[in-house]
Amino acid sequence: MNQLLRLIKQLGPGILFASMAIGTSHLVLSTKAGAQYGWIMILPIVFANLLKYPFFEFGVRYTNVTKKTLISGYLDLGKPFLYGYGIITIVSCFTILAALYVVTAGLLINLLKLDISLNLAALLLFFAISLLLIIGRYKVLEQSLKLVVSILFFALLIVTLMAFGKGQVAPTHGFTAPTLFNEIGILFLIGLVGWMPTAVEASGWVSMWSVEKLKLKGSKISINEALREFNIGYVITSILALFFLAIGCLTLYGTNTDLSGSAVIFADQIVTLFTQYLGNWAYGLIAISALATMFSTCMTAHDALARVSLDLLEKSSTPQNRTASKYSFAFMVLGLALLNWFVIYQFSANMGNLVALATFFSFVFAPILGWMNLKTVTQPTFPKAYRPNNLLKGLSYLGIVFLSAFSLYYCYLMVF
């Protein structure tokens, strides 16, 4: 028990990564994968988590060895690398964050039966989360998300075990398994792999949290401790993806259920269908799990984008023009909240197009960012004793090839 408590106390960037990654990619994409294509989708989920692992690990490794953010590593590689990452961050700042808050606001309205508009629900969420981030900063974020992810993990574990206990739902008469390797199936597969466990640019987010953890602990964290803690978070992320897949497969596969393309409607469908399958008693458990998933994702993404944006501004400016302030983080959090609420207010009908733009940038830059992360931990200035071993480097090269193939094919489908 003492070892378990000590382990939970050590959790930091890894648990934040898990909290951030289990949003739409898990709740929507993993569940939909199981519901539409069945158990075969275990393979792309496992491969995506495995082949992307080195790129996120390199961010933690670089920061805990150099005591600097991964963005500093990009700057060391050259200004073009820094600006490339900056472009992705700018696009994410007014697309991904707005999309996450829209989904969460929709869940809040549908699950709590609130009689308010989507814009007002989103505004209330922006206010609540901004207040939590500004007042609590990293320490409260870390502590609160340990609780949220723990509740989510055990709630999903219970639902998954109940689903296995009840068994596979009976397929409808005349059901024919859909083909994965046609244009629709390939596009879904690309989306699943691209956002599983999350986009590669989030490696910079994990690096920022690692810096905050070092400040909190006074730099008294060894590289082995930091990597072990991150690995725990990464494993939790991967397991939760399989939980969602299993639930979707056991409760929906073979039923010919028409699942909505809207993340808000889809999430409401999932809660309703799970309740019908498991019983009305499960509504509260499913609702809490869904809300905890999206609320925690909004918190971590909002916090990370604020930190990364500030770091990019600092690294992009000349030393004499850098004007750090103790209120900078608060201003950036509020600025992102106002910007994204405006995006929701003005462009909610076109949110799909905005997210598609962010998806395009994420896919195109994913293999480049993977290569950049590898370069930061293998460059001559990085201590040789802490460089990744040959197995990890080999896995990263395989991941770069894997992501490049998906990116090129995705661009081909978008153009032709």
UniProtKB/TrEMBL annotation:
Signal peptide (UniProt feature, chain positions): none
Keyword flag Disulfide bond: no
Annotated keywords: Membrane, Transmembrane, Transmembrane helix
Transmembrane portions of the chain: 12-31, 37-60, 81-104, 116-135, 147-164, 184-211, 232-253, 281-306, 327-348, 354-374, 395-415
Protein name, per record: NRAMP family protein
